[in-house]
């Protein structure tokens, strides 16, 4: 049976590079939104430029492009699908999302010499533009499809890319492809998960069997269960740690309202490290 892998990601998360490397490793074809547009244009007997112009005033063009993705479910070849909405139209595919903090995105975009059409005077300007575009895309997909592309439960796996080189990220993607279906698995960097408790940082944490549960809010991950295990991972300098999304609404509300920054500084002092950024 053919395997379809649907990958999307935050702007600047390294999605395009990861997909290219994954395709090279597996010798699988990549099908993207651009490919869908070119296929539809051929079927209509027009150029992609003409297609894009028509789509500005004709919503049916988007619908036809969506149907091209939906038809991929019938494909008999292994495919990597590069599209913001592929997970929605191909529910039986492996659904993977790459995430990174806006500050990471902005820095990557600013220093990426391949992005000739995206030039900024400062990293801060690039970061602000990334945040604006994220919000715009999120609103667009919510308006047209009534879905939230940033709702992490939509995906089989979420991979945080801020601190990892391309090869490590692709290794994680391959592990998801080869693994058994599970509830959403988060592959996170321990040093990018923020605490919500103070006392653990002052203790001598050791690994235990508790599963780490986190909340995703304000573009960051916050641990609400498993502080000891997270602290142990930081002390032993683990690169990755698996976590689950928490359904604890009270904890989520606490995170949204804001955590005292003293907890973060105490956690850093107690575990002798520094967060590369802090929640806004």
What this model shows, in words?
The chain has helices at residues 15-26, 33-44, 48-55, 60-71, 86-89, 102-111, 123-145, 166-178, 227-235, 249-257, 261-271, and strands at residues 4-9, 29-32, 79-82, 94-99, 157-160, 185-188, 193-194, 213-217, 220-225, 241-245. With 280 residues, it is an alpha/beta fold. It has 2 domains: 4-178, P-loop containing nucleotide triphosphate hydrolases (Rossmann fold, 3-Layer(aba) Sandwich); 189-271, no CATH class. A 10-stranded mixed sheet has the order 2-3-1-4-5-6-10-8-9-7. Helix 2 packs across helix 3, helix 2 (33-44) packs across helix 4 and helix 6 (102-111) packs across helix 7 (123-145). The longest helix has 23 residues, at 123-145.
Highlighted features:
11 helices; 10-stranded mixed β-sheet; alpha/beta; Rossmann fold; single chain; 280 residues; 44% helix; 2 domains
SSE map:
Layout: E1 4-9, H1 15-26, E2 29-32, H2 33-44, H3 48-55, H4 60-71, E3 79-82, H5 86-89, E4 94-99, H6 102-111, H7 123-145, E5 157-160, H8 166-178, E6 185-188, E7 193-194, E8 213-217, E9 220-225, H9 227-235, E10 241-245, H10 249-257, H11 261-271
Parallel strand pairs: 1-3, 1-4, 2-3, 4-5, 5-6, 7-9, 8-10
Antiparallel strand pairs: 6-10, 8-9
Helix pairs in contact: 1-8, 2-3, 2-4, 6-7
